[in-house]
Amino acid sequence: MTTKTRRSVNLRILPSSMSVLAICAGLTSIRFALEAQPHVAMALIAAAAILDGLDGRVARILDAESRIGEEIDSLADAVNFGVAPAVVVYVSLLSTSQAGWVVVLFYAVSIVLRLARFNALLDDATLPSYTREFFVGMPAPAGAISALGPLAAKLQFGVGWWTSPWFVCAWVAACSMLVVSRIPMKKMHAVSVPPNLAAVLLAVLAIVAAAAFLFPYILIMVAIVAYLCHIPFSMRSHRWLAAHPEAWGEAPKQRRATRRAIRRAQPNRRSMARLGLRKPGRTT
């Protein structure tokens, strides 16, 4: 075996190695939660989410995608974003609640069901091309970070209504329902940024990086709110694409131009339909 071949083999195991490291981070978060160190537990789950976001991209860059790698990644997601957050939330916030264990079980099972559906949809060749730009339901990493929202609020603001068992149970149950829902949610890598906004995006990323060190819990809560606020826009984009097959193969810039052209051609249609009005001279 040549040096080049050995180097290629070593690089091809890098994505799977990142998935294994993510599993270690997720399981270790449970240990720190049991030792009453929830801040470390949350940091480890966040690290697992970062590794999860990188391993697939690294696999594509290295042309190291494989079936076994996909299975390891799926199992890692079940542990890191299903089991670990459920245990961390239960130990930190719901250990005195009789309904708490039921709620975290519901959450963990919802994550597993969501991952199973995701894997099944990957092999469905009958789906339109535009559906590849959307998740079906909230993705597992976003579900995990959202479920940890009350814990982040506790670490930032102390005890309050946001740490009461009834609110935490309702919050985690709502996150679980979003995870198993069929609501379309835009994939981050499918979002395009116009070239003239690239500098603004880099500045925002710098601010986010600084906030991750200075105000990590506030950053988590802001990220949760921002993600929840994007859902209506994602649903609107999904409906528009479903109604305009001619735009499925267009580049993002062309698609934006198509949407603007349609809005200019029918500027008042939506407002008139919403108010139940019709154009003068038109009979019903």
UniProtKB/TrEMBL annotation:
Transmembrane regions listed in the UniProt entry: 12-30, 99-122, 134-153, 165-185, 197-228
Lipid bilayer topology: Multi-pass membrane protein
InterPro entries reported for this sequence: CDP-alcohol_PTase-I, CDP-OH_P_trans, CDP-OH_PTrfase_TM_dom, CDP_ALCOHOL_P_TRANSF_CS
Keyword annotations: Lipid biosynthesis, Lipid metabolism, Membrane, Phospholipid biosynthesis, Phospholipid metabolism, Transferase, Transmembrane, Transmembrane helix
Compartment(s) of residence: Membrane
GO biological process: phospholipid biosynthetic process
Transmembrane helix keyword on record: yes
CC per GO annotation: membrane
Main subcellular localisation: membrane
GO MF assignments: phosphotransferase activity, for other substituted phosphate groups
Source organism superkingdom: Bacteria
Entry-linked PROSITE patterns: CDP_ALCOHOL_P_TRANSF (PS00379)
Annotated family: Belongs to the CDP-alcohol phosphatidyltransferase class-I family.
Protein name: CDP-diacylglycerol--serine O-phosphatidyltransferase
